[in-house]
């Protein structure tokens, strides 16, 4: 069973599970084979992603040499899933000892940094991967991939990526030592929140004790909960008094949290999450970095539903550049087409 975004679906694929409850869809059964373009359009209207079975042979299936998922994406999935498992081993070991396995940490960072440099769309695969990794390991890998991607977009030199990646991967390592269950559905108590606010200092102490990482790594981690307006923790720093790379990490951590399913809150769509970032730009977050992040993600991210000047609703399946998008109509049209920003009147919220 494989999780796919609906714009990745093709005729002949076998659906085995949808992304929402039975009563919220027009389907009597949630297991069926896609037999027409009309079915594809309907699925894209009601669902963001589905689970499919690649093992069965179906009519209209592409020949054996053709993969429904791009080879690059298959490779990325394997690397990300392996990284989840490897990091989980490191973090599990740390629950009863203070030793950081720096070799495995650097291995994960190096592998994922190379993956991002080779495939700029790696970050798009994050929401198609169903992982059983605990939340801290899972969120840390997600943050690393998004962070390295932003670094690449901004033009930060490659020789800094290993240290920056290590900071991103270890940014919440202090949480492992806290007497708090992060898998709980309930809101944190006052005392638990006080404990939570010590995790950056605990993390910095663990990293410095290991002596396997330069001070630069712990400096970035130390300030990633400082807010642009000075209301963050632990030191109440503001604006340019906060390390630039820490400010970048704060933006990434905020976006990652908004777009990940949590016990108490369902993940937001990419567009909705970017909207939330703009609301705290200039207060919690550095507005210049928020602007760069939105520029890199795209004004209209993949899966955003747009309204056109013709009155149609279309779903974005690919950003071509800042002014052009590849889209597919929700109601008509069997193939994708290109639309320019001057033909877009707004965003349609389902």
What does this protein structure show overall?
Helix content is 41%, strand content 12%. It is α+β, with helices and mostly antiparallel strands and 350 residues long. The protein has 3 domains: 2-53; 71-297, Hypothetical protein af1432 (Orthogonal Bundle), CATH 1.10.3210; 305-347. The strands form 2 sheets. A 5-stranded antiparallel beta sheet has the order 8-7-6-5-9, with no helix packed on it. Strand 7 (324-329) and strand 8 form a beta hairpin. The longest helix is centred in the first third of the chain and has 23 residues, at 71-93.
Looking at this protein, list some descriptive labels.
five-stranded antiparallel beta sheet; 3 domains; four-stranded antiparallel beta sheet; 350 residues; alpha+beta; Hypothetical protein af1432
